[in-house]
Amino acid sequence: MMDWTDRHCRYFHRLLSRHTLLYTEMVTAAAVVHGDRDRLLGFDPVEQPLALQLGGSDPAQLAQAVRIAAGYGYGEVNLNVGCPSDRVQSGSFGAVLMEQPALVAACLAAMQGQGAEITVKCRIGVDEQTPQETLPHFLEIVAGAGVRSFTIHARKAWLQGLSPKQNRDVPPLDYPLVYEMKVAFPALEICLNGGVDSLEQARTHLDNGVDGVMIGRAAYHRPADILAQTDRRIFADGPDRDIVAAVRAMMPYIEAQMSKGARLNQITRHMLGAFAGKPGARVWRRVLSTRAHLDGAGPELIETALAEMATKEPSWN
Q1: Structural domains in the chain?
Q2: How many angstroms separate the CA atoms of 179 and 210, rounded?
Q3: Alpha carbons 207 and 211: distance in angstroms, whole number
Q4: Model pTM?
Q5: What digits encode the pLDDT tens for the residues 70-85?
Q6: Residues with catalytic function
Q7: Which phi-psi region, left, alpha or beta, contains residue 262 (left: φ > 0; alpha: ψ -120 to 50)?
Q8: Which of 5, 42, 278, 316 is 20 to 30 A distant from 135 in Cα terms?
Q9: How far apart are CA 20 and CA 32, in angstroms?
Q10: 100 Cβ partners below 8 Å, 6+ apart?
Q11: Contact by Cβ (8 Å): 93, 80
């Protein structure tokens, strides 16, 4: 979710679900250690529960990054062993580490005891690996470092020949293999990721024994269908969040962030899908996408967009 789940996105998503675990964009351990920590790690306490997703392959540097993150208040740090981008491969982290489980275990061992729970996100394998053999071997080696929670993207990553975008869709999904890993490693928390685009699908996966389900793009593009209903339908703690109330609740946050130098469109770009599939969605997107970047645009644009939706779609009155 690089360039997607920044702090503005997460604040909006938290208004829609109290219980869903949110993830940061992936940041590298080197950036945390040497870069602008406030920009990379800063978050509003409202965003909790929140996990920081790290990339890296240097045990000492990862351990230092976890210590820094814990100081910022992160209770969970997730090591990404699933991202297939060229930038990630060139830095020897992400999905390429599926080929080096011993190194992953060394990284995780160093990350333990630094003030945050350590978890892993991985693929079922890469390139010519046989997932039915590779994945259980990977889990056994890595769990030996003391990690108990894994989120498994149920696709291979093809590091040669497919773009990062294609790697999200082209390799076939193998959900049964992830179910099998929960049976084979009952003491581990096994969460499933990949291709899940509805709460009905998430419920099916949970009913097949996995401990959790990660939803990325669908939750971002259709938050009213996913996040606003998750507390009731998955956590049995309703009612659903009203999407109009949620976008209005963003207005004080927008004002506060703009007073610190943020531009309106940096925040509202994460809200474009708020009414996806509902009456007035096109009007909402048009107002925000054509006006939020203009000089002088402020949080009142939210009310303007809602008013124009109500004019075009009386159901919103």
Answers
A1: 7-222 (3.20.20.70), 243-316 (1.20.120.1460)
A2: 6
A3: 9
A4: 0.93
A5: 999 999 999 999 887 6
A6: 83
A7: beta
A8: 5
A9: 25
A10: 57
A11: yes
